[in-house]
Amino acid sequence: MRYDLGIVARMIGRGQNVLDLGCGDGELLETVIRDQGCRGVGVETDPEDFHACIARGVPVTQGDLEKELPATATGTYDVAVLSLTLQAVRRPDRVLGEMARVAPRMVVSLPNFGQWRLRASLALKGKMPVTPLLPYEWYDTPNIHLCTLADFESLIGELGIRVRERVLLDSEGRQPGAAARLAPNLLAEGAIYSLESP
Description:
Elements: H1 3-12, E1 17-21, H2 27-36, E2 39-44, H3 47-56, E3 60-62, H4 65-68, E4 79-83, H5 92-102, E5 105-111, H6 116-125, H7 149-158, E6 162-169, H8 178-182, H9 184-187, E7 190-196
Parallel strand pairs: 1-2, 1-4, 2-3, 4-5
Antiparallel strand pairs: 5-7, 6-7
Helix pairs in contact: 1-2
């Protein structure tokens, strides 16, 4: 399992009822069900990933998470997870609000579009940057909302969502050195947040 998903799994905890939004091939959900005694369901729109979840034996529904969330009853889950997906949804504010409604705890990971290498690449080359964490060209990227860590933290503050824990990530999805903690919006390539609903 990817290193960052291991951090997400730790933040989820043991014995939780989990909603994994944009669950990909189901690796995270399979792991927390098998190793941490969790139960839950994934939501995935991509047909290949949906079938990969089925092959793993992971409970999953195929659909648009932005349509699935409003149809989910309040307080149905213990934890809602959104891993490297927030930047690809149409209305991140509504998604976060709905996540807070359906679960008292949330785990959200996202890339940091304010990281200095991205800023420098755009300034010096005049082209949208491509990195290991953001491996797409501008014309085929699923990322439609390019936010920084500061943008994200401002939004969750407006929504009344509290940060329980933040783990910064480097370009390989691992924890960076101490310098990133001093200026995370400039030096971290991404972050994972454990959040609490209002």
